[in-house]
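Subject: two folds for Thursday's group meeting

Dear M.,

Sorry for the delay on this. The cluster queue was jammed most of the week, so I only got both jobs back this morning. I'm pasting them in the order they finished. Each block is the input sequence followed by the predicted structure tokens. Could you check whether the formatting survives your parser before we put anything on slides? The first protein is the one we discussed after the seminar.
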Amino acid sequence: MTYDDICDKCEEWMQPYMDRVLDESERAEAEAHLDECSYCRKRYRFEESLRMFIREVAVESMDPRLKAKLAALRLEL
């Protein structure tokens, strides 16, 4: 597996990793890669800061119809 392949895999795992839904071996592999790869680590930090920003500014309730549409678009991993 090339380094680019590992970065692609890490990108697939980024959201599940942040949501803490990866199994032990996937989590360990993602963390090992984040420790070694500055590009993926920067992406992780960006995603983390984006989530924090959204939590801070999202004070209004979402319209239930919009929430249902967004849930329907979510892909299973």
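Second protein, same layout:
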Amino acid sequence: MKESRKRYSAAFKAKVAVAAIQEQETLAKIARRFGVHPVLVSQWRKQLLEGAASAFAVSGGGERDAARSQDELLRKIGELTVERDFLSKGLRRYR
């Protein structure tokens, strides 16, 4: 019977990665303490170090993303309105 993969929460991964960054224990000891494979500890540590810069990045692009998503939503509303009108006209013919 096939075993399902274990899924770890982001908070757990962060806790393990921070412990690895502190370098008070070896990766093997940290892995044993948290019950994960040492490779996962090193991967999570690497991901935390690579993503740490984004925590301090200026969020100036948020407005641009919001405007883009608003445009996409308005376009979708227009498409759905046209589709609804088309289908309602088609239903009137068969009544």
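Two things I noticed about the second structure. The longest helix spans residues 62-93. The radius of gyration is 25 Å.

Cheers,
T.
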